[in-house]
Design a protein that fits this description.
Elements lengths: L1 H20 L7 E6 L4 E5 L3 E7 L3 E6 L6 E4 L3 E7 L35 E8 L3 E9 L4 E10 L35 E4 L10 H6 L6 E4 L1 H19 L7 E8 L4 E4 L5 E3 L1 E10 L2 E10 L14 E2 L1 H8 L9 H9 L9
Antiparallel strand pairs: 1-2, 1-6, 3-4, 4-5, 7-8, 8-9, 9-12, 10-11, 12-15, 13-14, 15-16, 16-17
Length: 342
């Protein structure tokens, strides 16, 4: 298994290198070589994601309606990425705005800014895959956004909250925040919630990295924001409602309400962007809330719901850019709160 994952990682790295040096020859096919001598070929543009199946393999999850291809690790001898000039691209290949970084090709990732002061930090565990990813602004010492998935495979409740606060090892020490930055007036507000990552202690511990924190008034963090998180993590995160939820959370780190005692930005607004896919059908919704030191416990969340297009205008962030262009354009302009049981 470990050998297979290393091979796949090297192949994905090769794709990124090819994309930078020779776009015309960028691999468009994936070939599995099995230990029994057989092979299987997959068009890269048809793959939506590789979804982990326990600890024994993965599914190639296709975006073109084809049945998913399940691959067991112990079946694979090697994996090859190659370029076939006779292959016509699928719709996904025509997406002009998707991320080119192979580490940010999953549907939950917004368009990377990829500036000199930005770091893409991704955390994962051996048993449950990616915990979350974020783009970190080193000049602000805060995340521009945090993105993660919720589905049946990572929604078990096996452990309790660890409260194991710590540093993100992917962020250089001079750009990190610490408990000293969150003075008594502000709580350490999770973006990827602890309650959404309870499959393992290691996974939950990663949610307590300070890069995943945003200074919040506790009246906001523990009431209105918490109600929004429960809507996403409990009411929408059910097998009946979704196959997968793609979630992005953040705050307006460039629109400052005030600062903490150490000068860390306290954002004026907080937001969520959620994409849901069920049986191949997509829908999307955003939440936008003023960051107030007021406990709003009985608010109708419908009043905070906005379309993804409107959320993009407010934040300047291009959400769900890896969707095929036609799906992205259609779903991001919609706001059907009834589809979300609001």
């Amino acid at each position: 298994m470990k050998r297979t994952i290393i091979i796949l990682f090297m192949a994905l790295t090769a794709i990124g290198m090819n994309a930078q040096t020779d776009d015309a020859q960028e691999p468009n096919m994936l070939r599995y070589y099995f230990s029994n001598g057989q092979t299987a070929e997959v068009k890269i543009s048809s793959i939506d994601r590789l979804q982990k199946v326990g600890s024994i393999g993965w599914n190639n999850v296709f975006n073109n309606g084809n049945p998913n291809l399940s691959i067991l690790f112990n079946q694979i001898d090697s994996i090859e990425f190659y370029y076939d000039p006779n292959i016509q691209p699928d719709l996904a290949d025509q997406n002009k705005n998707r991320n080119t970084n192979p580490r940010a090709m999953l549907l939950e990732y917004p368009r990377l800014r990829s500036g000199n002061d930005d770091i893409l930090s991704i955390h994962s565990t051996k048993d449950y895959g990616i915990t979350y990813g974020l783009e970190y602004d080193c000049t602000k010492r805060l995340a521009r956004w945090v993105a993660y998935e919720m589905h049946k495979g990572n929604s078990q409740k096996n452990v309790s909250r660890t409260n194991d606060w710590g540093d993100d090892p992917n962020i250089p020490s001079k750009y990190r925040t610490s408990s000293a930055d969150f003075t008594s007036n502000f709580s350490r507000g999770h973006l990827c919630p602890s309650s959404d990552r309870l499959c393992s202690r290691e996974q939950n511990k990663q949610t307590f990295y300070y890069s995943n924190m945003m200074p919040q008034y506790q009246n906001h963090n523990g009431v209105l924001w918490a109600n929004m998180e429960q809507q996403v993590g409990n009411k929408w995160n059910t097998d009946a409602f979704r196959d997968t939820l793609y979630v992005v959370k953040g705050a307006t780190i460039y629109d400052q309400l005030t600062t903490t005692g150490t000068g860390l930005t306290v954002p004026r607004y907080f937001y969520m962007a959620v994409l849901c896919v069920k049986n191949g059908n997509y829908k999307a919704i955003g939440f936008w809330t003023l960051h107030e030191n007021v406990a709003r416990s009985k608010e109708d969340l419908k009043k905070y719901a906005i379309s993804i297009d409107e959320l993009e205008e407010k934040t300047g962030i291009d959400f769900f850019c890896n969707l095929p262009d036609d799906i992205e354009e259609e779903k991001e302009k919609e706001l059907k709160t009834s589809d979300w049981k609001l």
